[in-house]
Amino acid sequence: GEYKVQRWDIHKQDFLESAPGLGMFVTVTTPSDEILLSKLYGPQARFSFTSHISGEHTICLQSNSTRFVAFAGSKLRIHLDIRVGEHFLDESVLQAKDKVNEVNFRLEHLIEQIHHIAKEQNYEREREEKFRKTSEETNSNILWWAIVQTLILISIGIWQIKSLRDFFISKKLV
């Protein structure tokens, strides 16, 4: 990203080209709230970061001083240019063909690795889902087996009580 801060000048009724003494804290966080970049820059700067996870990243620009803002009538203009994707920081690297070819080869290799990792993750996800379904069916079967055993034991107990009662009645012991 690249930004430029302009401060409102009351006398000229226009924004000044640069805001001397005014700086910006730039903070970049990942979707999992991990801080990738937290640095103080001047009124005009270029910042970059590399993230190893995909998702929505948060870029926060915060003035380092409220004194200038209050003095200037609370008006600041910030020009912000954000480039997303892979960019080279040094333009001279792009002009060297052997370096470009090496980087291109590495990039293609990394892309292949990303596709391979994504396929492995999908395969693991499917296996986990199948295992979970099997586990739930097994737990369900165990529950039903316990219920059937309990019913069998209760019915055998009732049958034994009835049989013993009939036996004692027939022998005239009760």
Automatic annotation (TrEMBL):
Organism: Pterocles burchelli
Transmembrane segments: 142-161
This protein's record includes keyword Nucleotidyltransferase: no
Listed PANTHER family: TRANSMEMBRANE EMP24 DOMAIN-CONTAINING PROTEIN (PTHR22811)
GO annotations of cellular component type: endoplasmic reticulum membrane
Family, similarity comment: Belongs to the EMP24/GP25L family.
Domain GOLD: 1-84
Full protein name: TMD11 protein
Record key words, sorted: Endoplasmic reticulum, Membrane, Signal, Transmembrane, Transmembrane helix
Membrane topology term: Single-pass type I membrane protein
Entry annotated with the keyword Transmembrane: yes
Compartments (UniProt record): Endoplasmic reticulum membrane; Membrane
